[in-house]
Design a protein that fits this description.
The complex is a heterodimer of chains A (206) and B (355). Helices cover 68% and strands 0% of the residues of chain A. Chain A is mainly alpha-helical. The longest helix of chain A has 21 residues, at 166-186. In chain B, helix 5 (250-261) runs antiparallel to helix 6 (266-279) and helix 7 packs antiparallel against helix 8 (300-310). The chains are: A mainly alpha (206), B alpha+beta (355).
Chain lengths: 206, 355
């Protein structure tokens, strides 16, 4: 990859977003690579909340390519994270809106269930079902928990990426975890058999 | 403190969080940065490849351009008509026999026949000893219990509609929300991304139980949203009742059934509503949110007050707005309950007529 240094100061992991974005906008692919390293997990996590897992890797690349092409339209360089997050969520929505896809879209929370049927591996199945349950949480809790449990980000990192306060991320992680525990405990809701249904119906018909 | 581990991985490890990290870590992002330069070059090449055409077109005379446009319209019309013809054939549900001998018309699926197809207009019938499943790759899978009649009403590319005339189905739907509906004699169930069981008895009364995601149930202007763990009954000519969580107390459920479907005197109704409000737990906010739009103007402030205690409304929602059933405020409060975005319902529900 050609990496043109267009600013005097060397690009490092600790460079501020606006410095990296400014450099990337001026054609510095190395700076954009650093932005990728910094934000790929966030983009991946947002997509994993919304689209089938097998589609996520390709969509991550698409999102960054789109971001690179549209970087000039970003007015406030310090808002890169929020801007990239919006691009990512829109891309996920487009995935479902785009009726011309050769492959039909699959409802997010059910994809893992469908995949889990295809594998005999117990741990794989459990992971798929756990991810499916995680994806049924309200968005407020789903994204932070996805970042923490799947992408391995810490609370402070999540707060920085999402532009939230530490307090609100901490509360959302805590509440989301409670909800996830509750849902995981309830996930094996037994099917209603016909007799039970009929008994219920006759009870309600009184 | 265990929360410290959840927060930043410090402190005493929480075994449950660790287990989830290990389990879900397999989905973690591990792709290195792509060769952006190459990808951009490829993109530029694609764009350049289009340029000769645009250059050529710009130099064509008006007459030639007009002829080309007419020809293009002709080709486009042909393609559209052709596509419609193909779409009309519709995807076909694959039937798999689970036990017994389910029937489609005169054709019976015996133990030897592995699969069959269920097309638009056809009805799958299971007697008391037979069960089957039907699958549509792009939509989902439905298990049909004994004693059921299930008809395919429509099967377009983005519109799958079944009619459960009686019996029980267990639906696992992976189509996008709003693409799949099931008619029953007393309500229409609109899938909003979920797993659910739907039962219809011989009188046409129904019961819907959601296991995952949520389902919308509607008839005659009555709408019910049923999230995972909740149940909703429906009656012919009345439509869906008020959904409730299955772990609600028996007295709460009984009172709700009577409130929804029984003929009551004003005193009885008042007593039942009072009991529902008094017995409601925080999770019964689901039920109370639905009751807000089902009670009279005089009853509504009382329901608001109780619901506001159980599930405080978002800042933009006011008592006065809810009492006059402001749709935006109702929607906002529903979304705050966290069961699903009502935007999905408004987006899809109107595209499905009740009959």
């Amino acid at each position: 990859m050609e990496r043109r240094a267009v600013i005097a100061q060397p690009m490092t992991e600790v460079s501020a977003d606006d410095t990296l974005v400014g450099a990337a906008r001026a054609g510095d692919r190395f700076a954009f690579g650093l932005l990728y390293d910094r934000y790929a997990r966030m983009v991946h996590g947002i997509l994993l909340c919304r689209v089938p897992p097998r589609e996520v890797d390709d969509l991550v690349q698409e999102v960054f390519l789109l971001a690179l092409r549209k970087l000039d339209s970003l007015r406030d360089l310090s808002r890169f994270a929020a801007w990239l997050g919006t691009i990512t969520r829109n891309r996920a929505n487009d995935y479902y809106r785009n009726a011309s896809r050769v492959e039909q879209p699959i409802e997010p929370a059910e994809e893992e269930k469908a995949q889990s049927r295809l594998t005999d591996h117990v741990v794989e199945q459990e992971a798929a079902m756990t991810l499916a349950v995680l994806r049924t949480l309200p968005e407020t809790y789903r994204e932070p928990l996805m970042f923490r449990l799947v992408e391995g980000m810490t609370g402070p990192e999540i707060a920085a990426r999402l532009g939230l306060t530490h307090g609100s991320v901490r509360v959302n992680l805590h509440r989301g975890m409670l909800m996830l525990r509750e849902k995981l405990a309830k996930r094996a809701v037994p099917k209603v058999d016909d007799n039970a249904n009929k008994a219920k119906m006759s009870g309600q018909n009184e | 403190m265990k929360d410290d581990y959840l927060w930043d991985g410090s402190g005493e490890p929480d075994p449950e969080v660790q287990k989830l990290e290990n389990l879900l870590g397999r989905y973690r992002q591990d792709q290195p940065a792509p060769a952006f330069e190459q990808a951009l070059d490829q993109l530029a090449q694609k764009q350049n490849a289009r340029r000769p055409w645009s250059f050529l077109v710009s130099r064509l005379s008006f007459q030639v351009a007009a002829i080309a446009a007419v020809a293009l319209m002709g080709v486009a019309s042909f393609v559209v008509i052709r596509m419609k013809q193909v779409n009309n054939s519709g995807p076909v549900w694959e039937i798999a026999r689970i036990e017994g001998a389910p029937r489609v018309g005169w054709h019976s699926l015996s133990a030897n026949s592995k699969t069959a197809q269920l097309k638009v207009g056809q009805t799958l019938v299971t007697d008391n000893s037979s069960r089957a499943s039907i699958t549509l790759d792009e939509t989902g899978q439905i298990e049909v219990d004994p004693g059921s009649r299930l008809r395919v009403v429509a099967s377009g590319p983005n519109r799958k509609r079944l009619s459960l005339e009686r019996g029980t189905i267990h639906a696992t739907i992976w189509a996008p929300p709003g693409e799949f509906v099931v008619d029953t004699p007393s309500a229409v169930a609109v899938d909003l991304g979920c797993v659910y069981t739907l039962h219809v008895d011989d009188s046409g009364a129904g019961l819907l139980r959601t296991t995952m995601g949520w389902v919308g149930f509607k008839l005659n202007g009555h709408e019910s949203f049923i999230p995972a763990g909740a149940v909703c009954a429906t009656r012919p000519k009345i439509g869906p009742g008020t959904p409730y969580f299955e772990d609600a107390s028996a007295s709460f459920r009984d009172a709700l059934t009577k409130f929804d479907f029984a003929k009551l005197t004003p005193q009885e109704r008042n007593a039942l509503l009072g009991m529902l409000l008094a017995e409601a737990r925080p999770q019964d906010a689901l039920t109370l949110w639905h009751l807000v739009s089902r009670v009279s103007d005089a009853e509504r402030p009382g329901v608001y007050d109780r619901l506001a205690v159980l599930a405080p409304p978002p800042k933009e929602v006011t008592r006065e707005g809810i009492v006059r059933l402001d749709q935006e405020m109702m929607d906002s409060w529903w979304n705050a309950l966290g069961y699903g975005d009502v935007y999905l319902w408004h987006m899809y529900e109107r595209t499905w007529p009740e009959k």
